[in-house]
């Protein structure tokens, strides 16, 4: 009898790229739902626009590159990029900005480098930075969380705002948008206010902005689930928080009235999302365990430095992109000691 | 972590990096008692059933041989003789499919079985092994054709002359590969043979401690072996956690002693020697009964087989004959694997014979071992590095193997890879990593061999250039001298000058050659000190280069 031959090992390989990506998507769900709860259906509309355009651009480029389209789309990596981008941008972002962002992420940042696995930069973050620099106003016009909203928008108003790029009839942008907690904190501090004064405002919850902190909490749940499922390891998130809170604690101890406490930084802006879902993107992160610790700490510290002394209220995207550049070098210098190469012979 | 060993001592265990918890699938083949295979009509005995030089036939077609008679041997230092597993007539020495991943053929002795089971005169049993000369025991082990039966097939006698003081003898009863149960069965059914073999091994090596490492998924084997120990046996039976590949020699040594075999080195450098339980049993047979290695225990398992079981089988029986005796194929069989799923290899035909190193024939169903899907791009997730028992960075090695940057792959310690398959198993992109590493290894060997040849040619070329330059200088010097002789009446330059020019030219030429030679001094190569098996692999690769389709991308 004749048989086919394959290379060893001959096992049931249960893990697959699409399963990994699907797990990331599932882990994002609680946070996405919380965002929708606080910031309205614009979040979901953004996700839909981003996903459709990301998939379309990916299919287009694959076709141009004469690569199999369906198997690659099936890996869901474009969907993950789309969701990460869509939840990082304001819920009323004009639709065409989302499309431009996805075109840049998928065509320039991902496919031109060779597609999944070859891109040195995180596509979602690169697109975010591109838009933030080019269109700063719409990219920073956040809605207030529903609990604080004085002019709650209905579904049709949101749809029309996104697709016409103008505020609902009878309202001004200023009337419906609000600074993010990080932005607000920054502005107030710049105006010379003390932190204890700033926290008198009703926009604050227990650790960060009202509503915002709960979104962070749900992303945290999702992130912990990913660690539990061993889709990611604890190294990058923990190192990220260590870097961020380490610097925050030093400055807080130095002057608690000018520098917010460490947990504020953790539960504000994109810190939690960044730590568990963005910095851990395997393609662009470090792969050695020691390297991942350095990578995480450096991102955390950069986030703090840019937030506190830089020109932007939040900095996860910048910090991640900067460390993306450093990742290969860090990997090179943090190779583990291979069995039999140490002095553990005697 | 500490466990209680059989001596009531607490023994510290160490871990190794990575490893995998795999579904062990051992139950299937443990349902029935061990049976002896019926002798088939023909036995195929490959001349190379061990690492080292192939044996040379001592018989010719038409000869009648008796059971246990030596039919092939070689005086080369690394070789093991081959014996007739039963009595019969030699029908030829032909090329036959042999158990090898490449599916190639090799020379084999074909023995037609006469069914009389007539034994040859066996050497006298050495019952009192503690009081005979050790060289006699070594000679007995060598003459019995015993090789490492865990699959490595290194001639056992050589590992018993380590040339270094041995403190610890480690007996490998881990059997970490899924599906395989022949060592488990052996320990349960023949504990005395195993322990006697261990005692002989310990006596020969003079090791003060002896540890039998068994994974904790074999509690019966552990307790049976323990109950057969005598009070004054210095043997400890150590239960180790089930974690693939704990049965790898280097991993088992690390688990039991906490020490790492140096890269490119041998366990003996640590004062440790490791043998498999089945090897120990075979040594007991050889010493205590004079019986050569002519049969072994083989696990037959998988949903593709009607009756999974363990069988004592004569060497040389074909997989087809064995599978028939195990009830035949069920129709669910999708592949035929010799060895376990992790490190075994596919056979393309069931006409391949069982050899000394064959511990398992696995006929899995598509559910047990699904056909691998197409490989996707690496997403650098690093799972491969997390599970690597050698702490390599497989994903980096893959990157460079794919680009054929062989020197870079070697910088990432390619040659420390034990090909255990953990990285391939966990890869979400289903990249056949181990396959790439095997390819990179054989390519590196081939390239270095090529380099060696090129270096040799260059050396000869440089020598020739130097010689021509010298001849030229000599000729010119002669010419000049002649001219001077002709114009003798003119004031002459001192004759020594021509002599000097000649000397200078020769010196310059030699200096150039030496400088070139020095520039080519290169570090030691992976093709120096190849084991004969690796050398053989290299040769096979050279030969079948056209068919080496490792990198199809």
Keywords:
heterodimer, A: 346 residues, mainly alpha, 2 domains, 17 helices, B: 553 residues, alpha/beta, Rossmann fold, Ubiquitin-like (UB roll), 4 domains, four-stranded antiparallel sheet, 15 helices, 35% helix, disordered C terminus
The number of distinct β-strands of chain B equals: 19
Radius of gyration of chain B (Å)? 29 Å
Strand order of the largest sheet of chain B: 3-16-15-19-17-18
Task: Compute the average pLDDT of chain B.
Answer: 89
Ranges of chain B where pLDDT stays below 50 over 5 or more residues in a row are 548-553
Number of strands of chain A: 0
Total of DSSP H or I helical runs spanning 4+ residues of chain A = 17
The helical percent of chain A reads 55-70%
Q: Report the CATH superfamily of the largest domain in chain B.
A: NADH-ubiquinone oxidoreductase 51kDa subunit
**How many structural domains are formed by the residues of chain B?**
4
Describe the structure.
- The complex is a heterodimer of chains A (346) and B (553).
- Chain A has helices at residues 17-39, 42-64, 69-73, 77-88, 95-110, 123-134, 136-140, 155-164, 173-176, 181-190, 195-198, 212-228, 235-254, 262-266, 271-278, 289-309, 316-333.
- Chain A is an all-alpha fold.
- Chain A has 2 domains: 16-178, no CATH class; 194-334, no CATH class.
- With 553 residues, chain B is of the alpha/beta class.
- Chain B has 4 domains: 1-31 and 122-293, 3-Layer(aba) Sandwich (Rossmann fold), CATH 3.40.50; 297-362, Ubiquitin-like (UB roll) (Roll); 383-441 and 532-547, no CATH class; 444-518.
- Helices cover 35% and strands 15% of the residues of chain B.
- In chain B, the strands form 5 sheets. In chain B, strands 3-16-15-19-17-18 form a 6-stranded mixed beta sheet, sandwiched between helices. In chain B, strands 4-10-9-6 form a 4-stranded antiparallel beta sheet, with no helix packed on it. In chain B, strands 13-12-11-14 form a 4-stranded parallel beta sheet, sandwiched between helices.
- In chain B, helix 4 crosses helix 7 (277-289) and helix 13 crosses helix 15.
- Chains A and B meet through helix 1 of A and strand 18, helix 9, helix 12 and helix 13 of B.
């Amino acid at each position: 009898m004749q048989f086919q031959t394959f290379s060893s090992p001959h096992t049931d390989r249960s893990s697959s790229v699409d399963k990994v990506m699907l797990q990331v998507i599932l882990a994002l769900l609680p946070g996405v739902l919380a965002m929708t709860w606080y910031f309205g259906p614009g979040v979901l509309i953004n996700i839909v626009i981003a996903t459709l355009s990301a998939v379309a651009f990916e299919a287009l480029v694959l076709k141009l590159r004469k690569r199999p389209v369906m198997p690659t789309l099936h890996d869901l990596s474009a969907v993950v990029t789309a969701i990460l981008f869509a939840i990082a941008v304001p819920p009323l972002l004009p639709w065409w900005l989302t499309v431009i962002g996805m075109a840049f992420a998928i065509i320039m940042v991902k496919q031109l480098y060779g597609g999944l696995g070859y891109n040195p930069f995180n596509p979602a973050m690169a697109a975010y930075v591109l838009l933030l620099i080019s269109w700063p106003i719409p990219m920073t016009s956040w809605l207030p969380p529903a609990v604080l909203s004085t002019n709650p928008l209905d579904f049709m108003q949101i749809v029309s705002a996104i697709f016409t790029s103008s505020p609902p009839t009878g309202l001004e942008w200023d009337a419906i948008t609000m600074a993010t907690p990080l932005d607000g904190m920054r502005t107030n501090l710049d105006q010379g206010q003390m932190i204890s004064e700033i926290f008198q405002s009703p926009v604050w919850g227990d650790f960060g902005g009202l509503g915002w902190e709960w979104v962070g909490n749900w992303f945290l749940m999702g992130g912990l689930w990913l660690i539990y499922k061993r889709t990611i390891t604890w190294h990058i998130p923990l190192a990220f928080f260590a870097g961020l809170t380490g610097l925050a604690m030093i400055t807080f101890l130095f002057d608690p009235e000018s520098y917010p406490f460490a947990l504020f930084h953790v539960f504000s802006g994109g810190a939690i999302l960044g730590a568990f879902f963005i910095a851990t993107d395997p393609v662009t992160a470090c792969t050695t365990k020691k390297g991942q610790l350095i990578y995480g700490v450096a991102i955390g510290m950069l986030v703090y430095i840019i937030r506190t002394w830089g020109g932007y209220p939040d900095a996860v995207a910048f910090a991640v992109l900067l460390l993306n550049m450093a990742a290969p070098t860090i990997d090179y210098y943090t190779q583990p000691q291979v069995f039999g190469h140490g002095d553990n012979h005697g | 972590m500490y466990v209680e060993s059989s001596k009531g001592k607490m023994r510290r265990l160490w871990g190794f990096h990575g490893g995998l918890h795999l579904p062990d699938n051992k139950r299937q083949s443990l349902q029935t008692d061990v049976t002896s295979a019926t002798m088939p009509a023909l036995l195929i005995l490959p001349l190379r059933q061990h690492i080292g030089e192939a044996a040379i036939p001592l018989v010719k077609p038409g000869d009648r041989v008796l059971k246990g008679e030596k039919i092939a041997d070689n005086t080369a230092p690394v070789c093991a003789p081959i014996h007739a597993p039963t009595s019969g007539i030699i029908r030829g020495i032909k090329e036959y499919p042999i158990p090898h991943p490449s599916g190639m053929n090799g020379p084999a002795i074909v023995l037609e079985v006469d069914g009389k089971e007539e034994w040859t005169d066996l050497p006298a049993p050495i019952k009192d092994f503690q009081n005979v000369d050790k060289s006699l025991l070594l000679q007995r082990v060598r003459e019995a054709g015993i090789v490492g039966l865990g699959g490595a097939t290194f001639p056992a006698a050589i590992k018993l002359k380590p040339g270094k003081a041995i403190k610890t003898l480690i007996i490998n009863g881990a059997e970490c590969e899924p599906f395989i149960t022949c060592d488990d069965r052996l320990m349960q059914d023949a504990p005395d043979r195993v322990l006697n073999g261990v005692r002989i091994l310990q006596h020969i090596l003079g090791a003060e401690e002896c540890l039998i490492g068994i994974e904790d998924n074999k509690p019966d084997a552990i307790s049976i072996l323990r109950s057969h120990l005598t009070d004054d046996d210095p043997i400890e039976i150590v239960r180790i956690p089930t974690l693939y590949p704990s049965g790898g020699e280097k991993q088992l040594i690390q688990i039991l002693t906490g020490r790492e075999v140096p890269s490119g080195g041998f366990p003996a450098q640590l004062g440790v020697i490791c043998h498999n339980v089945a090897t120990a049993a075979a040594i007991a047979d050889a010493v205590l009964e004079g019986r050569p290695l002519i049969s072994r225990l083989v696990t037959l398992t998988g949903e593709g087989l009607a009756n999974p079981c363990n069988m004592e089988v004569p060497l040389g029986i074909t997989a087809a004959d064995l599978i028939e005796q195990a009830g035949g194929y069920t129709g669910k069989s999708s592949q035929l694997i010799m060895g376990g799923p992790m490190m075994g290899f596919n056979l393309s035909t069931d006409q391949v014979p069982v050899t000394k190193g064959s511990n398992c024939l696995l006929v899995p169903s598509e559910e047990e071992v699904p056909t691998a899907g197409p490989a996707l791009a690496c997403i650098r997730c690093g799972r491969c590095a997390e599970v690597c028992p050698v702490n390599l960075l497989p994903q980096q090695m893959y990157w460079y193997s794919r680009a054929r940057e062989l020197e870079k792959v070697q910088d990432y310690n390619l040659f420390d890879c034990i090909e255990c398959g953990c990285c391939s198993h966990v890869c979400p992109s289903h990249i056949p990593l181990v396959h790439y590493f095997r390819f990179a290894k054989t390519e590196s060997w081939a390239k270095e061999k090529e380099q060696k040849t090129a270096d040799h040619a260059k050396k000869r070329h440089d020598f020739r250039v130097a010689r021509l330059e010298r001849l030229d200088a000599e000729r010119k010097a002669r010419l000049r001298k002649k001219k001077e002789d002709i114009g003798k009446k003119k004031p002459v330059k001192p004759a020594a000058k021509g002599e000097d020019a000649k000397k200078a030219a020769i010196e310059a030429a030699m200096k150039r050659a030496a400088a070139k030679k020095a520039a080519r001094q290169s570090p030691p190569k992976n093709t120096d000190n190849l084991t004969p098996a690796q050398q053989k692999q290299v040769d096979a690769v050279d030969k079948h280069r056209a068919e080496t389709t490792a990198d199809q991308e």
